[in-house]
Amino acid sequence: MNATVSFATLGVPRIGRRRELKKALESYWSGQSSADDLEKTAREIRAANWREQAALGVTRIPSNDFSLYDHVLDTCAMVGAVPPRYGWRGGRVSLDTYFAMARGSESRGDAGCGHPGHGHGHGEGVGALEMTKWFDTNYHFMVPELSDDQRFALSSTKPVDHFEEAKALGIHTRPALLGPVTFLKLAKTDDAGFDPLALLPGLLAVYEDVLRRLAAAGADWVQIDEPALALDLLPNERDALRFAYDRLVGAAPGLKIMLATYFGPLGDNLGTAASLPVAGLHVDLVRGADELPHVLAAARSDAVLSLGVIDGRNVWRADLGAILDRIEPVVTARGAGLVEIAPSCSLLHVPIDLDLEDALDVDVKGWLAFAVQKIGELSVLSRALGEGRESVAEELGAAQAAIEARRASPRVNDTGVRARIAGLDASAARRKGAFAERRKAQAGRLSLPAFPTTTIGSFPQTSEVRKARSANAKGALSSADYEAFLREETERAVRWQEEIGLDVLVHGEFERNDMVQYFGEQLSGFVFTKHAWVQSYGSRYVRPPIVFGDVSRPEPMTVAWWRYAQSLTTKPMKGMLTGPVTILNWSFVRDDQPRAETCRQIALAIRDEVADLEAAGAAMIQIDEAALREGLPLRRRDWAAYLDWAVECFRLCSSGVADETQIHTHMCYSEFNDIIEAIGAMDADVISIETSRSRMELLGAFETYKYPNEIGPGVYDIHSPRVPATQEMTDLLKLALARLSAGQIWVNPDCGLKTRKWDEVRPALVNMVAAAKELRASA
Questions:
Q1: 451 inside domain
Q2: Which of 229, 406, 610, 767 is 20 to 30 A away from residue 555, measured at CA?
């Protein structure tokens, strides 16, 4: 083998090595900087990304993988899919209209002028697009809103602009576009009976225009992402793919299309994907590890196969020797010119560079690879394929040594944890009494009014809170002074909640950095990073914990703060925990045992915390499972197995309490209707869910499924700065009453308030309490 094997990245993190994009966005939104300042930072990040990939030897460097907020929203802007409420009148989609769709705006008619989202949002405002999870990842995208008479028009030339921007730097890129079929499949319409795929011909006209412009600018390849090919597709959806690519392939002669699929095997969509007249096909061989022989059999002999062999969604070093064993025969059979290697998907989902971590556990650090290191792994594979393994013997040896060290490490396996799991029986995952019995016991203990009001748990993490946390971490603020500060913040929040008349209080979580990290830092089997940020949505970034070994809880984690908060009030104070499935799904999880096994270990750790809260006197404990649905497999045939162990794990952590102890859970920004029975099987006494952006649309499942327990459908969107009026929330609650009984309904926001400002939160919660009182008066 002496011919070069190309390698690509499909996309890289767009946040900047030091979160430069977050700072620039929030400065712009607050009015402290201009659009020019924001674009300057964005250009610098893009240039740095392209140059770094070029320096690492990447053959196919992507462009248009950068976004100011979200790549699906970028596609809405590109094709002019702007709902009428934003006041857009055609032409180029402005930055302000773009951010209004992302975040909402503060007063009607301001989407095209000023800074949407600036100020306090006390006007009626325009709501943001709905937001939900990107397939089964923790990334959120903005859901396109289309109408049956939708007209598309090229309204942003960003893909061409970024290609030319890289070209001016001397870097030839392969522009990346979200595929038209996936875009339409992700969209929603105001007519439930209308199929967005009917809009495909008009949409393709815009894509054809973009492809022609890219070809004219000098592009020779374009990457078009169709992750919908990893889903269960109907015959008409497969027909739509054939129709789309028959047109797109001929749009710009000389421009080749690399069709990228990821997040799972193609399965029964393989025949469709392989038959499309594109020049290249990318497949995910991490999640579709067994599919390679079938792909080779189905692929056209003249198509370039892009093999996604490096995990783009987890942080463990790859077994490079094993990968070479798999793909060397492919290169031999097809020839180096018809094979490309790549991550399984865009590297958007992993941190940027392991070398930024100067305080990470040295053993675990040696087992990890972030985006830069994954590109390095691809480079080693490419050289080994082109020049022979001996040319990279040192790198292959280091990779193998890391794999073996991890397998042999005594820090990974805890015999006590494994013995406890082995000793579980079915009774551990069952509450003592049925819900009807529990409800009576809880009503007697709590004495709550109809339509009880509460919040989801967190209150604003102000700049003062963040500064105090940072000062304490740096040693500039003593632990005693930091705790005193947190006690003052907690007491202030408790007193204010009492003042406005909330029925069930929370302590505000000022001591918590993140709803998963806070717990992981106190559990064994986890390690944490300082700079390993990944994007969740917009300017919201997280540093997922890394689960490297067996999990247990050495000591109580939240009891002291709950006890202090409850001492300040006679009203019920919720104990606040993060559930095992969410901790699992929002972490980078060990890949050397089934995820279900790791989840059971976390569940037992949370069960111990629940027991200690109850023993301390907590009458109400909330165990958030915000990420339960996002772990749902993409193929329906795989749902039952996942839901069985996910529900079991929730019940395992929540079922050790007495009947009079009320268990809450919270879920946000996911489609729940198709798993409503599993949610019912969790048997939480109260569940709160996101429903405000969809105007209670998610409660449609309750028309056929009679949810037995109590529920808090979120009545305002906390991801927007706007403050909804009392009447707006009252109207939403009345919509909920059409599907639920009055005795079931709680009144709450749709998510935690950590990311909002107090001058947004205060009026919104006052209006929410007023809405609940209106309903009580009219009941």
A1: yes
A2: 406
Residue 623 inside a domain? The answer is yes
- pLDDT by residue (tens digit) across 156-195? 999 999 999 999 999 999 999 999 999 999 999 988 789 9
**Which CATH number characterizes residue 753's domain?**
3.20.20.210
Nearest to 587 by CA among 528, 663, 508, 669: 528
Mean pLDDT of 311-338: 97
The yes-or-no verdict on residue 114 having pLDDT over 60 is no
C-alpha 94/C-alpha 79 separation (Å) is: 13
The Cα–Cα gap between 735 and 745 comes to 11
pLDDT at 193: 86
Alpha helices in 289-413, H assignment, sequence order:
292-298, 320-334, 362-365, 371-387, 393-408
Q: From the candidates 71, 115, 162, 719, which is the catalytic residue? A: 719
Q: Are 333 and 314 in contact (CB under 8 A)?
A: no
Least Cα distance to 166 among 38, 39, 12, 47 occurs for 47
Which residue's structure tokens are 């773009």? 98
Q: Which of 214, 216, 181 is nearest to 198 (CA)?
A: 181
Q: Is 563 left (phi over 0), alpha (psi -120 to 50) or beta?
A: alpha
Q: Which of 492-506, 572-586, 656-670 has the lowest mean pLDDT?
A: 656-670
DSSP label of 477:
S
Domain coverage including residue 585: 435-778
Residue 162 catalytic? no
Q: Does residue 542 lie in a domain region?
A: yes
Which residue has tokens 């989609």? 93
**What is the structure's pLDDT at 673?**
75
Which tens digits make up the pLDDT trace of 228-268?
A: 999 999 999 999 999 999 999 999 989 999 999 999 999 99
Average pLDDT on 377-386 reads 97
Q: Measured between alpha carbons, how far is residue 407 from residues 181, 187, 412 in Å?
A: 42, 44, 8
CB 735 within 8 A of CB 691: no
Output Rg (C-alpha) for the chain, integer angstroms.
26
Counted domains in the chain: 1
CA 274 – CA 277 distance, rounded (Å): 8
